[in-house]
Specification:
The chain is of the alpha+beta class. Helices cover 24% and strands 22% of the residues. Strand 1 and strand 2 form a beta hairpin. The longest helix has 13 residues.
């Protein structure tokens, strides 16, 4: 079984918003989020693969990717 391509492209999505409390507190970090994208290009499920170390930043990252829309992956040109 061939997995769908993982090069799901970003569409014109809004810019992410950095939580204002995190800015004031100097919280920084990178969040790695795994996103399952449906055949309609909408995210169906997310999972934190690597935390920033700050729950507030992790939640903001998940909120953001759930608002975005994507080009779904394809196998042999067919949306999977």
């Amino acid at each position: 079984m061939e997995l769908p391509s993982s090069d799901a492209a970003y569409l014109q999505n809004p810019s992410p918003v950095y939580p204002s409390v995190s800015l004031r507190l100097g919280e920084q970090g990178r969040v790695l989020v795994r996103v399952l994208i449906g055949t309609n290009g909408q995210p169906e499920r997310t999972e934190i693969k690597r935390s920033s170390g700050f729950d507030r930043l992790d939640r903001a990252a998940i909120d953001y990717v759930m608002k975005c829309r994507y080009v779904p992956g394809k196998v042999n040109g067919v949306v999977q």
